[in-house]
Design goal:
This protein has 5 helices and 8 strands; from the N terminus they run αααβββαβββββα. It is of the alpha+beta class.
Amino acid sequence: METNYQFHYAWRKHGRYYQGHFISKPLPHFIEQDIWKDRVKSDIRQFIDVEQSKLTKKYQLAQKLNDQIARLSHENKWESDLNERILFIAEQMEDVCFRMYITDVEGYQQTANVIKANDLWTYDFSAQMKNWSWRPYFIENVIRMKQDQTGILSDLYSDIETGEMIRTFSYPLEKDLFLFLDMSSMFLDQHEYLLW
């Protein structure tokens, strides 16, 4: 490794052994074991500060989304049609998401995808009743949401349909129903800490 950025990346990816010009230029002999200890300690302290800041912002965003969805869900709880409910929520959260849908506890999609395209929200019924339980995170996240009664912000991943890097916010509704809100790339770009 040659730069502080590469050191940070290796540290973030749980690297254990490091080598390269960043540590020391090539020498015909070994360097003293503790020669870079203070520098490395200082860099790691900086990395920890950066990571703590990003995680704090992610937790604050998750709490904000929890509060917003709880309020919106309560406001239109009278609406029996799930598609109309998520359209109402999506319209209120259009600065955050580009797609929204609801599944049951077993992963079967109970609604259409509500998708924003060309500044309009539309229904796409092609995914209704598809099963998403095969996704590696699905069952664990459903259990966590049921247990904690709070939403979960996913890791960054590549969307199957668009190929873009996105995050999903999952939220537990009533009666073993779960709302999935796919965040728009514009929202992620505006919140840089979500791109890591």
